[in-house]
Amino acid sequence: MKTLLQLENVEKYYGSKNNVTKALDKVSFGVDKGEFIAIMGASGSGKTTLLNCISTIDEVSAGNIYLDDINITDIDEKDIAKFRQKNLGFIFQDFNLLDTLTIEENIGIVLTINNLSPEKVQPMVKEIAAKLGIEDILNKYPYQVSGGQKQRCACARAVINKQSLILADEPTGALDSRSAQMLLEVMEDLNQSLEATILMVTHDAFSASYANRILFLKDGKLFNEIIRGQKSRNQFYHEILDVLALLGGDVSNA
Ligand SMILES: Nc1ncnc2c1ncn2[C@@H]1O[C@H](COP(=O)(O)OP(=O)(O)OP(=O)(O)O)[C@@H](O)[C@H]1O
Protein backbone atom coordinates (compact mmCIF):
# COMPACT_ATOMS: atom_id res chain seq x y z
CA MET A 1 0.00 0.00 0.00
CA LYS A 2 1.25 3.48 -0.84
CA THR A 3 2.20 5.76 2.06
CA LEU A 4 -0.05 8.83 1.96
CA LEU A 5 1.06 10.67 5.07
CA GLN A 6 4.52 10.55 6.64
CA LEU A 7 5.59 12.35 9.80
CA GLU A 8 9.32 12.57 10.53
CA ASN A 9 10.51 13.65 13.98
CA VAL A 10 7.75 16.21 14.39
CA GLU A 11 8.22 18.52 17.36
CA LYS A 12 5.96 21.28 18.57
CA TYR A 13 6.74 23.70 21.36
CA TYR A 14 4.42 26.32 22.76
CA GLY A 15 5.49 29.36 24.74
CA SER A 16 8.82 31.14 24.95
CA LYS A 17 12.18 30.50 26.60
CA ASN A 18 11.21 30.43 30.26
CA ASN A 19 7.89 28.75 29.85
CA VAL A 20 8.04 26.10 27.14
CA THR A 21 5.53 23.28 26.71
CA LYS A 22 6.71 20.43 24.52
CA ALA A 23 3.40 19.36 23.00
CA LEU A 24 4.92 16.95 20.43
CA ASP A 25 8.25 15.24 20.93
CA LYS A 26 9.88 13.64 17.87
CA VAL A 27 6.71 12.01 16.58
CA SER A 28 7.23 9.81 13.52
CA PHE A 29 4.73 7.54 11.77
CA GLY A 30 3.29 6.78 8.35
CA VAL A 31 -0.27 6.31 7.18
CA ASP A 32 -1.03 4.23 4.08
CA LYS A 33 -3.64 5.28 1.57
CA GLY A 34 -6.99 3.78 2.59
CA GLU A 35 -6.19 3.36 6.30
CA PHE A 36 -8.55 4.44 9.08
CA ILE A 37 -6.35 5.56 11.98
CA ALA A 38 -7.40 6.68 15.45
CA ILE A 39 -5.18 8.79 17.69
CA MET A 40 -5.78 8.31 21.41
CA GLY A 41 -4.18 9.64 24.57
CA ALA A 42 -4.98 11.42 27.81
CA SER A 43 -5.96 15.06 27.94
CA GLY A 44 -2.91 17.19 27.15
CA SER A 45 -1.02 14.34 25.43
CA GLY A 46 -0.81 16.28 22.15
CA LYS A 47 -3.63 14.85 20.01
CA THR A 48 -5.14 18.15 18.88
CA THR A 49 -1.69 19.66 18.35
CA LEU A 50 -0.82 16.71 16.12
CA LEU A 51 -4.02 17.11 14.11
CA ASN A 52 -3.48 20.86 13.82
CA CYS A 53 0.07 20.36 12.52
CA ILE A 54 -1.11 17.80 9.94
CA SER A 55 -3.97 20.07 8.86
CA THR A 56 -1.53 23.03 8.47
CA ILE A 57 -3.55 25.03 11.00
CA ASP A 58 -0.47 25.07 13.24
CA GLU A 59 3.23 25.11 12.25
CA VAL A 60 5.63 22.45 13.48
CA SER A 61 8.66 23.63 15.51
CA ALA A 62 10.86 20.93 13.93
CA GLY A 63 10.51 17.90 11.69
CA ASN A 64 8.67 17.23 8.46
CA ILE A 65 5.19 16.15 7.40
CA TYR A 66 4.69 14.77 3.89
CA LEU A 67 1.31 14.31 2.26
CA ASP A 68 1.56 12.54 -1.09
CA ASP A 69 5.28 13.41 -1.12
CA ILE A 70 4.62 17.15 -0.65
CA ASN A 71 6.36 18.55 2.41
CA ILE A 72 3.45 20.44 3.92
CA THR A 73 5.67 22.21 6.45
CA ASP A 74 7.22 24.05 3.47
CA ILE A 75 4.01 25.28 1.85
CA ASP A 76 3.90 29.01 1.38
CA GLU A 77 1.38 30.86 3.58
CA LYS A 78 -0.48 32.14 0.52
CA ASP A 79 -0.95 28.62 -0.87
CA ILE A 80 -2.11 26.97 2.36
CA ALA A 81 -5.85 27.57 1.99
CA LYS A 82 -5.84 26.10 -1.52
CA PHE A 83 -3.81 23.13 -0.34
CA ARG A 84 -6.34 22.42 2.42
CA GLN A 85 -9.35 22.71 0.13
CA LYS A 86 -7.82 20.37 -2.42
CA ASN A 87 -6.35 17.74 -0.14
CA LEU A 88 -8.02 17.72 3.26
CA GLY A 89 -11.55 16.99 4.42
CA PHE A 90 -12.64 17.91 7.94
CA ILE A 91 -15.28 16.42 10.22
CA PHE A 92 -15.68 18.50 13.36
CA GLN A 93 -17.56 17.78 16.56
CA ASP A 94 -20.23 20.39 15.77
CA PHE A 95 -20.08 19.71 12.01
CA ASN A 96 -19.54 23.41 11.13
CA LEU A 97 -22.34 23.65 8.60
CA LEU A 98 -23.23 27.13 7.40
CA ASP A 99 -26.76 28.00 8.52
CA THR A 100 -27.52 30.27 5.57
CA LEU A 101 -26.71 27.63 2.98
CA THR A 102 -28.82 24.62 2.00
CA ILE A 103 -27.52 21.12 2.63
CA GLU A 104 -26.68 20.91 -1.08
CA GLU A 105 -24.69 24.16 -0.94
CA ASN A 106 -22.94 23.08 2.26
CA ILE A 107 -21.82 19.82 0.67
CA GLY A 108 -20.60 21.51 -2.52
CA ILE A 109 -18.98 24.54 -0.94
CA VAL A 110 -15.38 23.42 -1.48
CA LEU A 111 -16.08 23.01 -5.18
CA THR A 112 -18.03 26.25 -5.46
CA ILE A 113 -15.32 28.37 -3.87
CA ASN A 114 -12.93 26.88 -6.41
CA ASN A 115 -15.17 28.31 -9.15
CA LEU A 116 -16.53 25.00 -10.40
CA SER A 117 -19.75 25.72 -12.26
CA PRO A 118 -23.10 24.74 -10.67
CA GLU A 119 -23.67 22.33 -13.61
CA LYS A 120 -20.58 20.43 -12.52
CA VAL A 121 -21.11 20.71 -8.77
CA GLN A 122 -24.73 19.52 -8.72
CA PRO A 123 -24.22 15.98 -10.06
CA MET A 124 -21.22 15.50 -7.77
CA VAL A 125 -23.29 16.55 -4.73
CA LYS A 126 -26.17 14.32 -5.81
CA GLU A 127 -23.89 11.32 -6.22
CA ILE A 128 -22.32 11.55 -2.77
CA ALA A 129 -25.65 12.48 -1.14
CA ALA A 130 -27.25 9.36 -2.63
CA LYS A 131 -24.38 7.27 -1.31
CA LEU A 132 -24.99 8.67 2.19
CA GLY A 133 -28.80 8.51 1.99
CA ILE A 134 -29.44 12.26 2.21
CA GLU A 135 -30.56 13.02 -1.34
CA ASP A 136 -34.08 13.93 -0.08
CA ILE A 137 -32.94 16.78 2.13
CA LEU A 138 -30.62 18.65 -0.26
CA ASN A 139 -32.92 21.69 -0.48
CA LYS A 140 -33.33 22.04 3.27
CA TYR A 141 -31.31 24.22 5.63
CA PRO A 142 -29.27 22.77 8.50
CA TYR A 143 -31.87 23.86 11.10
CA GLN A 144 -34.50 21.83 9.22
CA VAL A 145 -32.69 18.48 9.39
CA SER A 146 -31.81 16.00 12.13
CA GLY A 147 -28.44 15.69 13.86
CA GLY A 148 -27.77 12.44 12.01
CA GLN A 149 -28.48 14.10 8.66
CA LYS A 150 -26.14 16.96 9.55
CA GLN A 151 -23.42 14.40 10.27
CA ARG A 152 -23.91 12.82 6.87
CA CYS A 153 -23.78 16.25 5.25
CA ALA A 154 -20.46 16.94 7.02
CA CYS A 155 -19.11 13.57 5.87
CA ALA A 156 -20.25 14.22 2.28
CA ARG A 157 -18.51 17.61 2.32
CA ALA A 158 -15.32 16.01 3.64
CA VAL A 159 -15.06 13.59 0.71
CA ILE A 160 -16.75 15.33 -2.23
CA ASN A 161 -13.54 16.74 -3.69
CA LYS A 162 -11.85 13.35 -3.34
CA GLN A 163 -9.72 14.94 -0.64
CA SER A 164 -6.83 12.58 0.01
CA LEU A 165 -7.02 12.76 3.82
CA ILE A 166 -10.04 13.14 6.11
CA LEU A 167 -9.27 14.62 9.53
CA ALA A 168 -11.80 14.15 12.31
CA ASP A 169 -11.41 15.74 15.76
CA GLU A 170 -13.61 14.01 18.37
CA PRO A 171 -16.37 13.66 15.76
CA THR A 172 -18.65 11.74 18.14
CA GLY A 173 -17.91 13.96 21.15
CA ALA A 174 -21.25 15.77 21.19
CA LEU A 175 -23.44 12.86 20.12
CA ASP A 176 -25.63 10.39 21.99
CA SER A 177 -24.51 6.79 21.62
CA ARG A 178 -26.95 5.91 18.80
CA SER A 179 -25.94 8.93 16.69
CA ALA A 180 -22.27 8.28 17.45
CA GLN A 181 -22.61 4.72 16.18
CA MET A 182 -24.36 5.93 13.01
CA LEU A 183 -21.59 8.43 12.30
CA LEU A 184 -18.90 5.80 12.87
CA GLU A 185 -20.70 3.44 10.49
CA VAL A 186 -20.78 6.18 7.84
CA MET A 187 -17.06 6.83 8.34
CA GLU A 188 -16.34 3.11 8.13
CA ASP A 189 -18.30 2.97 4.89
CA LEU A 190 -16.44 5.98 3.43
CA ASN A 191 -13.21 4.23 4.35
CA GLN A 192 -14.20 0.89 2.84
CA SER A 193 -16.23 1.84 -0.22
CA LEU A 194 -14.50 5.10 -1.24
CA GLU A 195 -11.11 4.11 0.19
CA ALA A 196 -11.04 7.42 2.07
CA THR A 197 -8.01 7.71 4.33
CA ILE A 198 -9.17 8.85 7.78
CA LEU A 199 -7.27 10.15 10.79
CA MET A 200 -9.54 10.53 13.81
CA VAL A 201 -8.67 11.92 17.23
CA THR A 202 -10.80 10.45 19.98
CA HIS A 203 -10.96 9.87 23.73
CA ASP A 204 -13.48 7.15 23.24
CA ALA A 205 -12.52 3.46 23.00
CA PHE A 206 -15.78 2.56 21.27
CA SER A 207 -15.16 5.14 18.50
CA ALA A 208 -11.53 4.06 18.17
CA SER A 209 -12.59 0.42 17.73
CA TYR A 210 -13.86 1.34 14.24
CA ALA A 211 -10.31 2.17 13.10
CA ASN A 212 -7.84 -0.26 11.50
CA ARG A 213 -4.97 0.99 13.62
CA ILE A 214 -4.63 3.09 16.77
CA LEU A 215 -1.71 5.28 17.77
CA PHE A 216 -1.45 6.19 21.45
CA LEU A 217 0.21 9.42 22.51
CA LYS A 218 1.63 10.04 25.95
CA ASP A 219 3.26 13.34 26.92
CA GLY A 220 3.69 14.26 23.26
CA LYS A 221 5.41 11.00 22.33
CA LEU A 222 4.16 7.93 20.52
CA PHE A 223 3.62 5.40 23.28
CA ASN A 224 2.13 2.41 21.51
CA GLU A 225 0.36 1.26 18.38
CA ILE A 226 -2.20 -1.51 17.94
CA ILE A 227 -3.62 -2.99 14.75
CA ARG A 228 -7.09 -4.47 14.38
CA GLY A 229 -6.13 -7.06 11.75
CA GLN A 230 -8.61 -9.94 11.71
CA LYS A 231 -9.95 -9.23 15.22
CA SER A 232 -13.64 -8.50 15.72
CA ARG A 233 -14.50 -4.95 16.71
CA ASN A 234 -15.40 -6.17 20.17
CA GLN A 235 -12.03 -7.93 20.63
CA PHE A 236 -10.28 -4.80 19.39
CA TYR A 237 -12.32 -2.65 21.78
CA HIS A 238 -11.10 -4.75 24.73
CA GLU A 239 -7.52 -4.53 23.50
CA ILE A 240 -7.89 -0.73 23.39
CA LEU A 241 -9.15 -0.71 26.97
CA ASP A 242 -6.07 -2.72 28.01
CA VAL A 243 -3.71 -0.17 26.46
CA LEU A 244 -5.65 2.70 28.02
CA ALA A 245 -5.29 1.04 31.42
CA LEU A 246 -1.52 0.83 30.83
CA LEU A 247 -1.43 4.45 29.74
CA GLY A 248 -3.19 5.63 32.87
CA GLY A 249 -4.25 9.26 33.05
CA ASP A 250 -7.76 10.47 32.41
CA VAL A 251 -8.51 8.77 29.10
CA SER A 252 -12.16 7.89 29.09
CA ASN A 253 -13.23 4.27 28.79
CA ALA A 254 -16.73 5.22 27.73
N1 LIG B 1 -1.83 27.37 22.19
C1 LIG B 1 -1.19 26.77 23.18
N2 LIG B 1 -0.34 27.45 23.97
C2 LIG B 1 0.35 26.85 24.96
N3 LIG B 1 0.24 25.55 25.25
C3 LIG B 1 -0.59 24.81 24.51
C4 LIG B 1 -1.37 25.37 23.44
N4 LIG B 1 -2.11 24.40 22.89
C5 LIG B 1 -1.84 23.27 23.56
N5 LIG B 1 -0.93 23.51 24.54
C6 LIG B 1 -0.34 22.52 25.48
O1 LIG B 1 0.21 21.48 24.67
C7 LIG B 1 -0.06 20.21 25.27
C8 LIG B 1 -0.84 19.35 24.29
O2 LIG B 1 -2.13 19.91 24.12
P1 LIG B 1 -3.25 19.30 23.13
O3 LIG B 1 -4.39 20.24 23.11
O4 LIG B 1 -2.62 18.93 21.85
O5 LIG B 1 -3.65 17.96 23.92
P2 LIG B 1 -4.86 16.96 23.66
O6 LIG B 1 -4.30 15.59 23.76
O7 LIG B 1 -5.56 17.32 22.39
O8 LIG B 1 -5.79 17.27 24.90
P3 LIG B 1 -7.40 17.19 25.04
O9 LIG B 1 -7.73 15.73 24.92
O10 LIG B 1 -7.65 17.72 26.42
O11 LIG B 1 -8.01 18.02 23.96
C9 LIG B 1 -0.80 20.49 26.58
O12 LIG B 1 0.16 20.52 27.61
C10 LIG B 1 -1.39 21.86 26.35
O13 LIG B 1 -1.55 22.54 27.57
Automatic annotation (TrEMBL):
Residues 5-244 form the ABC transporter domain. Keywords: ATP-binding, Nucleotide-binding, Transport. SMART domains: AAA. The keyword Nucleotide-binding applies. It comes from the Bacteria. InterPro entries: AAA+_ATPase, ABC_transporter-like_ATP-bd, MacB-like_ATP-bd, P-loop_NTPase. Pfam families: ABC_tran. The keyword Nucleotide-binding applies. GO terms for molecular function: ATP binding. PANTHER family: ALPHA-D-RIBOSE 1-METHYLPHOSPHONATE 5-TRIPHOSPHATE SYNTHASE SUBUNIT PHNL, LIPOPROTEIN-RELEASING SYSTEM ATP-BINDING PROTEIN LOLD. Belongs to the ABC transporter superfamily. This is ABC transport system ATP-binding protein. It comes from Breznakia pachnodae. The lineage of its organism: Bacteria, Bacillati, Bacillota, Erysipelotrichia, Erysipelotrichales.
